[in-house]
Design a protein that fits this description.
TIM Barrel; single chain; binds zinc ion; 8 strands; 261 residues; alpha/beta; eight-stranded parallel beta sheet
Length: 261
């Protein structure tokens, strides 16, 4: 089996010191490729460093919505410069909106501006986007409709309503599921997963966050994407092999990474 963790913060300070160990554990659990997204300029640099060092790691660079308020005005110039530092940068992300922590209208506006600016950066670089959306699903959809990502993208760890799955797919987005789809009481992610067509489905861990059942609450690792995949296979009523194959093919198509299956 060949599984891809499409969203794993190996550049996070909790995971970065033990990347070799985590990759080893991931390989033992059939994880063949890991996409490492970023949230700041600093973590974008680390993602690039990891991608340049490890064959199985690919990087995404970008400013996370919750980090927008701490970012200097030249972030777009800095990101563009970083893009030249590796052929393994496959996306701009994670970008988007997070109104959960930032309630101030001025900061929310800054988030929307940074989201839009980074969509255009992705379009200029011919890259897809990785989108984070928390407590802001309507605004996220509105921006994506008005500022279309021409190379598509993925709604990472989708937590929006089932009814909007089709709307995101219509504008070229894939839908990715993580730990919450494994939680016994998680109705919405399971329904959203059921609704997502196989050719638009991705799996991820979002490590070190959102550990799947039965590790809920613990630090998450890329090896555990296998537990997410098992849940997704169950929900879609297909074999784990088929789930691993389609989700890997989807990653290959979206991020233009080569897979040997
Ligand atoms: Zn993330």
């Amino acid at each position: 089996m060949f599984i891809i963790d499409s969203h794993c913060h190996l550049n996070d300070e909790a995971l970065y010191p033990k990347v070799d160990e985590l990759l080893d554990e991931a390989h033992k659990n059939d994880v063949g490729i890991i996409i490492c997204p970023s949230d700041t300029i600093k973590s974008s640099r680390l993602a690039i460093e990891l991608a340049n060092k490890h064959e199985e790691i690919y990087a995404a660079i970008g400013i996370h919505p919750s980090e927008v308020k701490n970012t200097t005005v030249d972030y777009l110039i800095q990101l563009k410069k970083l893009f030249n530092e590796s052929p393994k940068i496959v996306a701009v992300g994670e970008i988007g909106l997070d109104y959960h922590w930032d309630k101030d209208e001025e900061i929310k506006k800054k988030q929307r501006d940074a989201f839009i600016n980074q969509i255009y950066l992705a379009n200029e670089l011919h890259l897809p986007i990785i989108v984070h959306s928390r407590d802001a699903i309507e605004d996220t959809l509105k921006i994506l409709k008005e500022h279309k990502p021409i190379c598509g993208g993925v709604m990472h760890c989708y937590s929006g309503p089932v009814e909007l799955v089709d709307d995101f797919i219509k504008i070229g987005m894939y839908i990715s599921f993580g730990g919450p789809v494994t939680f016994t009481n998680a109705k919405t992610p399971k329904e959203a997963c059921l609704k997502t067509p196989l050719d638009k489905l991705l799996v991820e861990t979002d490590s070190p966050y959102l550990s799947p059942h039965p590790f809920r609450g613990q630090e998450n690792h890329p090896a555990r994407v296998k537990l997410v995949l098992q849940s997704v296979a169950n929900i879609k009523n297909i074999s784990e092999e088929e789930a691993s194959l389609v989700t890997s093919q989807n990653v290959a198509k979206l991020f233009h990474v080569k897979i040997n299956i």
